[in-house]
Structure prediction request, 678 residues.
Amino acid sequence: MSTAARDAETTEASPDPIVGDMIGSGVEGGVGDQVRAYFQRLRGGEMGALPAIGGLVVLAILFAFLSPYFLTERNFANLLTQAATLVMLGMALVFVILLGEIDLSAGVTGGVAMCAFIVLVDVAKWNTWVSLGVGFLIGIATGAFIGFFVARVGIPSFVVTLGLFLGFQGIELIIIGNGGLYNVQDPAILAIMNNNLPIWGGWVMLAIMVLISIGTSFWDRRRRSTAGVPNRAVVLVWIKVLVVAVIGGIVVGLLSQNRGTGFIKVEGVPIVVPITLAILWIGTFVLDRTKYGRYLYAVGGNAEAARRSGVNVIRIRWIAFIICSFLAVVSQLFSISKVGSVDPSAGVAIVLSGVAAAVVGGVSLFGGRGRLMHAAIGAVVIAVITNGLGLLNLPAGVNYAVTGGVLILAATVDAVSRVRAGGSLVRH
Amino acid sequence: MDEPLISLTGVKKSFGPVSVLRGVDLKAYPGKVTALVGDNGAGKSTLIKGLAGVQPYDEGEVRFDGETVTLHNPREASRLGIEVVYQDLALADNLDIVQNMFLGREETSWGTFDEGRMELETSKALQQLSVRTVKSVRQKVASLSGGQRQTVAIARSVINKSRLVILDEPTAALGVAQTEQVINLVKRLAEQNVAVIIISHNLADVFKVADFISVLYLGQMVASVKTVDTSYDDVVGYITGSKTYTGEPA
Prediction:
């Protein structure tokens, strides 16, 4: 039915405006209705992370056929730690990409923070945690610096962060010295990527996830009931919880097997996994349920509308850059934990992969659309490509070419779905 | 006759050497629709921006509810209950109807959104305006037609419990059916005892919906009349300056 016809047939005024049935909120009906509504949204162009998840499944099946090592517990654990740095960087970038901005310096910001950290620990002999605190402060200060120039002065974020990208490489060199390299010696830092939770710890982590999933779902339902609006069929909550429990159960189960090759047992969930999941959960909570998150989406969708609604657009933008830089430092912390050393090129190469991760996962570079989860999934897709092609002993060149191809494919899916969702291919 | 909700007396505004408003009077009554008409450059937008607090007036008296008030910034205006629905709709495409309706004034409990309450309020606001075209309040605004978007923008003022709603060219970009729909919406908004000021170039719409017509011509209010006491030709005459209104301002 055309819009005009739809409008025309429903313009008649009711005699008493209060009487009449409630306007729906899309949660009515049984499971069947919900599934139909979901497919309708998909056809309408709201695909979210679905293409990335599909791609992930296809890649996993492909590599499982091509390499006998791909589906081993050992490789699975490897994959998670390989992906963690990129997952964290992708999530960091989501905060600025949602605004339609970019932070090209996210990698080197983390790099400078880690260079400062390692020099403070190794040369100045400071306490590890104080030094790490300084690293995070550098991240926050950098974010505030970028935010000032983008949100207050009005310089495009591309330019400001390109400047920092170049400048911070220099600062890394100055801090570390040309050709210098420091080893990470603190066991707590190394543990993030190299040590595992005890086996029971993995199951406790999963139990907490399931409980949080149940808890938030029923909290939401209770608040909706109190307000007097309908809830989704309760069985959908249990399906969601079941999906979390089953997928989580498989992952934790696999990681609980001994994957060591020698006499030493290697088992359990890598410590980086719960850290990443916690940050993912907190970030998603902020984006979905708090004013800051809502305003971030609003500014990304229509900054003028947000401003007229009383949103402090400058503040929202500013804070987004601070969050991005802060999480970028976490990302580089993961990186040095895995590599075990800091050199002057820390964080230089990874930043564009971080942007790619977000885009592959379905975060729109035009701003306003995307979730943290999308960037995480996109990062895993890129990590699977790197990991799988590596197992096949293909040259690194192939890896870059395939990753690039996947990125362009993902961006095309985004652009086409924007057209379907009523937008256009060009930014306006 | 009731007391006007808002009355402007001798309002002046100039930008450098150009005086845009040269002593303008305007009144708007609760439950009535006042149309503000005038040719391009007559000063309509400047007059409205002053009411919204975006561009304060240089001189003149503003009385709201009988009391003298100042309108120096948008916050003062919104505190009084003045809401402007701008021509280029101030909605975020990527958010749904509820999120747009409550943008900047979300209901929270425990520091997080009370989505249920906001959904209910949105449904109620749309129902009060007898909106039937919207299937779900959780639709993304991007998926709405022009008329539906205008509807959402206007319904925001019901959520805010606005007392004076100013509509800037609400039907400019709409088709026939949708224009009809928005005109009905404006009438129902006035029925909620809201004072409505509507700016329009479309005199057919103005005559359909307005109780009063105020005509700006080169920064001066040349006519303020009851719609029933005037004619289409007269209003065109006032707008173009080819006719002079001789009666008392209504």
